[in-house]
Design a protein that fits this description.
The structure is a homodimer.
Chain A (H helix, E strand, L loop, with lengths): L9 H25 L3 H12 L3 H14 L7 E6 L6 H14 L4 E6 L3 H4 L11 H4 L4 E3 L8 H17 L4 E6 L5 H6 L4 E6 L20 E4 L7 H17 L10 E4 L8 H18 L1 H26 L2 H15 L5 H9 L4
Parallel strand pairs in A: 1-4, 1-5, 2-3, 2-4, 5-6, 6-7
Helix pairs in contact in A: 1-2, 1-3, 2-7, 12-13
């Protein structure tokens, strides 16, 4: 009675029991995931997506357990504006994958999902084939508050899916804010899905996006759209010709396809897999994966440093100082000195 | 004798005297700079470039003193590969400036200067006219170890030059590492000086550079080179057409000139000054300056956070953990947990 003085309270007893249970669970979840159990894969991802600090510890342990079983998949990132047909394209591409016996996981990074309640991949009606296929695992974007949080969860979910034996991981993003850079940083091949349009569509192209991609695919190249799609493809090739490629030794180019009529999809498949074998041969594939892990670690360090420093009071102080700097009343150096005054 | 027990030691006496002297100096240096004294301007910059911590304090005080006198100049950044003719171009452009009674300062951000001992602006023979003109102030790149350090010094040097009454500040960079982004972040107008060549010269273009520029100027458009320069200009315009402009409401374009034969320089002058009046009218000019000051503050905060955390021991630990993450022995999350274990 001395050791657990409040154990008679049923709520405290439940909490205590739960904690003990979780310590056992991690190893079990890991083993089940490695054996290919979908239910436990979902359970593992839920653990990763939890923000409770004791869950974070368990999640880290879980990942350490599965770490020897990761790294065997091909990771493909897909971005494109809403309406570019990402879901339809993934449905078509995923069909090709399962027909070749590739176990496929479909994930998403959607920084807006915390506002909209999960906009992309929520609508599974566009992926009716994949949604019901036993070799396909679909998981919508976690709806955490920050992009950094979503990024961590998706990166760790990729690892779990790999441990569960998925050969192809597709990561979709709508490209809000910095999300393309983040998805590029967790995938081997990065693809921009674009639309045909009035010829001016490239004007509104997002800053820096072209220097992240390994290929541009102009979707909906069917019927009356086909000619315009060829023109758009040409325009993209014009730009790509001048830019530094995202992957050393690989010349990114533009292609057309129609996900709806399933034309040009097989060609993109071949393209991606020749990219994978070329980069594996040159060593660029392994180098990128190592670099991505180290970059991710560095990002986590920066996030943690900021979280540690910017407690509520510091946030307020920073905001006040920022305003004075904005008005040129205080020099940035002086402002930073004031901010760190009592810290060191 | 009790108060200064070691004052009989001549070295300690000198240190003490020096400190007292410096406390007086700051206000004097500020006043002299504001009155336009070139010698004191140099002295102020030397103070800014010092890494001694008590100098940092004096430098901050100095900047606070001159802050009400800054902001009236036009700041132009110039980048280009070695051989693009930056010095010759600056000589020609500066000549135009002084002929219009613009007091001109020429600065540089050269991250390689700490290795090479100051490569750019060191060779003043290419700026013979400017080097001897009473209305021109030339200062080579500070040779500090880090790019962040060089950036801080140059930003603060810009402020001193403005307080000293310079109307036009030219900041040159060779574009090593992140230096273009840094110079873009401290200037109003950013210009890429390019060469004509075999037609393939755009291929090696640096990542992201085109989305930073307000204009591309193809230099050496003279004699037999002229035709090729027009072709290069056309190529640049092709790309610029598709990219998001660096400055809201301004369409960056490519131009040709010959700094050697002084042709096309006046046109660039007019271009820059119509940019300045347009952006001042739209409010974008003031907005950018405020944004730049706040961005700079944020960068300083990040630098300081890292300096505070990464003492020697942490650096070593980070390096070890990084290697384990690179080998996929440790997950990034787990590595970061270990790094912060004893910190919080």
């Amino acid at each position: 009675m001395r050791k657990f003085p409040r154990m008679n309270n049923p709520i405290n007893r439940r909490v205590f029991k739960k904690k003990v249970q979780e310590q056992i669970d991690v190893k079990q979840i890991a083993d089940k995931i490695i054996s290919g159990d979908r239910g436990y894969l979902s359970k593992g991802i839920t653990l990763i997506e939890s923000n409770a600090s004791h869950h974070r510890q368990s999640a880290n342990e879980l990942i350490q357990h599965i770490l020897p079983h990761i790294g065997k998949s091909v990771r493909v990132g897909i971005t494109g504006v809403p309406g570019a047909g990402k879901s339809t394209w993934i449905e078509a591409f995923g069909k090709t994958a399962v027909s070749k016996n590739y176990k496929t996981a479909v994930l998403a990074v959607d920084p807006s999902s915390s506002l909209s309640g999960g906009s992309i991949l929520g609508d599974k009606t566009r992926m009716e084939f994949l949604a019901h296929h036993p070799d396909v695992f679909i998981r919508p974007s976690p709806s955490s508050g920050t992009l950094g949080g979503v990024a961590r969860m998706t990166r760790e979910t990729i690892l779990l899916c790999e441990a569960a034996g998925y050969d192809l991981i597709l990561v979709e993003t709508v490209g809000v804010g910095q999300s393309e850079g983040i998805v590029r940083g967790m995938t081997d091949f990065f693809l921009l899905l674009s639309l045909t349009g009035a010829g001016d569509e490239l004007q509104g192209m997002k800053k820096g996006i072209m220097e992240l991609v390994d290929a541009v695919v102009i979707n909906k190249a069917d019927g009356a759209n086909k000619e315009q799609a060829m023109k758009t493809m040409h325009d993209y090739n014009q730009i790509l010709r001048f830019l530094t490629p995202a992957t050393k030794g690989w010349k990114p180019r533009a292609y057309t396809c129609s996900a709806l009529y399933n034309s040009g999809i097989e060609e993109i498949w071949d393209l991606i897999f020749s990219f994978i074998s070329e980069t594996k041969e040159s060593g660029e594939f392994q180098k990128r994966r190592s670099r991505q892990a180290v970059d991710w670690m560095n990002q986590l360090v920066q996030i943690r440093l900021n979280e540690t420093f910017f407690i509520e009071e510091k946030k307020r102080q920073m905001k006040n100082l920022e305003e004075k700097v904005r008005q040129h009343e205080l020099s940035p150096s002086e402002a930073v000195d004031l901010l760190f005054e009592k810290y060191q």
